[in-house]
């Protein structure tokens, strides 16, 4: 194993993205620290768990101490994002400025705002008008400004909605797959005949790990590898083929509580509902050309996701 491969990579956030990334980094031979507010349970093999509140400057600094690369995959409850995420950013930026670690940030499509169906590339203007979209755009500008000023080495990896093993709180997650397997009601949002991009959680992890290993990508936004967009109806049909029965689909044309999405979440999500009333199409070809990493076919992602949910459903029955 090379000296570079033994450098410490610190992953902040133990949700689906952070946990999958930690496993990917360990698979690549890195020493990995996985950080969450409470010590994460069931950390992947070869990964050290660590408890820290990285919205605190003191705890953020302790969490990244000794790391060569830091990955910001922290998320918070949806209704707290505009309040808490700026504090997390400031603490994490200060920490990497102090230690000299490179910072890889997992980002969203929110800064683009409404696109009227325009294909989103890294050159798409940032036109967000929602509170959360404006907040994310401001955070991203601050990250890139810190890089331009030489205060930190930063790169951003943007993802579409997640799908894959371990992903629960996604429009293609816990409100769809368990219902497909048990005959319950499966959620669909907005116009189900519009194309909508999903990024496989394993491609999120591979993309972020690649950015962490290759500083040539620093100082800009990249779209993480994302399979070609399909309509929700097409994706549901693919799920139906795999489970051998039709979905009992419930289509919400406006936000309201359903399944794992309670009233608090849906009230906050209302300003983002445009994502389901216009096409959401992500082009990740720039990343694919630069780093030679192509997204997994959606078919393979659905197979792996259904396998994971079968185990989850079986466990719930026991």
TrEMBL record:
Domain NAD-dependent epimerase/dehydratase intervals: 13-216
Pfam families in UniProt: Epimerase
InterPro entries hit by this protein: Epimerase_deHydtase, NAD(P)-bd_dom_sf, NAD(P)-dependent_oxidoreduct
Gene3D superfamilies recorded: NAD(P)-binding Rossmann-like Domain
Molecular-function GO term, any one: aldehyde dehydrogenase (NAD+) activity
GO (cellular component) term, any one: cytoplasm
Protein name according to UniProt: FAD dependent oxidoreductase
């Amino acid at each position: 194993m090379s000296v570079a491969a033994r450098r410490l990579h610190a992953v902040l956030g133990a949700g689906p993205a952070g946990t999958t990334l930690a496993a990917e980094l360990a698979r690549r031979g890195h020493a990995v620290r996985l950080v969450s507010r409470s010590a994460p349970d069931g950390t992947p093999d070869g990964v050290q768990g660590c408890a820290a509140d990285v919205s605190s400057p003191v705890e953020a600094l302790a969490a990244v101490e000794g790391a060569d690369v830091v990955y910001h995959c922290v998320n918070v409850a949806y209704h707290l994002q505009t309040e808490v995420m700026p504090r997390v950013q400031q603490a994490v930026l200060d920490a990497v400025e102090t230690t000299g670690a490179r910072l890889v940030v997992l980002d969203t499509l929110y800064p683009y705002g409404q696109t009227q169906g325009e294909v989103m590339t890294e050159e798409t203007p940032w036109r967000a008008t929602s509170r959360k979209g404006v907040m994310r755009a401001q955070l991203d500008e601050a990250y890139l400004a810190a890089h331009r000023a030489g205060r930190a080495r930063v790169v951003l990896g943007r993802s579409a909605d997640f799908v894959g093993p371990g992903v629960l709180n996604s429009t293609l997650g816990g409100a769809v797959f368990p219902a497909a397997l048990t005959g319950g009601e499966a959620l669909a949002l907005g116009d189900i005949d519009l194309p909508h991009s999903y990024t496989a959680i394993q491609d999120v992890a591979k993309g972020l790990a690649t950015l962490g290993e290759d500083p040539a990508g620093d100082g800009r936004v990249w779209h993480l590898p994302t399979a070609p967009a399909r309509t929700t109806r097409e994706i549901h049909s693919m799920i139906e083929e795999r489970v051998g029965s039709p979905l009992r689909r419930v289509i919400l044309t406006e936000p309201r509580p359903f399944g794992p999405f309670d009233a608090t979440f849906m009230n906050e999500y209302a300003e983002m509902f445009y994502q389901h009333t216009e096409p959401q199409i992500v082009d990740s070809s720039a990343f694919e050309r630069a780093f030679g990493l192509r997204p997994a076919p959606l078919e393979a992602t659905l197979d792996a996701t259904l396998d994971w949910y079968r185990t989850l459903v079986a466990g719930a029955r026991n």
